[in-house]
Fold this sequence. Notes:
Four Helix Bundle (Hemerythrin (Met), subunit A); 7 helices; single chain; mainly alpha
Amino acid sequence: xxxxxAHPRVDQLRFARSEFQRGLEGVSAAxxxxxxxxxxxxxxxxxxxxxxxxxxxAVRGQGLIIEPVLDAVANGEPATTPDLAEMWxxxxxxxxxxxxxxxxxxxxxxxxxxxxDERDKAPTAGDQLQRITYHYWSHIGESSxxxxxxxxxxxxxxxxxxxxxxxxxxxxxxx
Length: 175
């Protein structure tokens, strides 16, 4: 996971992703589509985080339109209970595209707006990187709550081995 080539903030995103995955290990397809209102289904959370990464790193960062299946789990869309395997597969493909982009970002790149972000007053790439990282932690908590309510006895404790997988590094330690 840890890449001494990547920016330290990118390592934190990757750690949040790994904690999200760790928190959902062993969740069945049937439990993943259960929706305990007003919370989202776990399968929706997986797809939704893939959608967010797609929006920022593929669309705004690279001008790529990929994984249309994730449109159904975008912000503002009605609640859904998509297939878990389909959402994990789309998430993984988006993360692969995102990681190739993220590996090339420097501190200077993070201080400016992404090249294909056409919004007025768009946030910097670094602000968006932080938003996605914290977005993962929000859904880690939500998915943990869903699992507890469903009676899962094996819900992981957080935070995992951050010191090993994404230790503190100064930006000058990059590359």
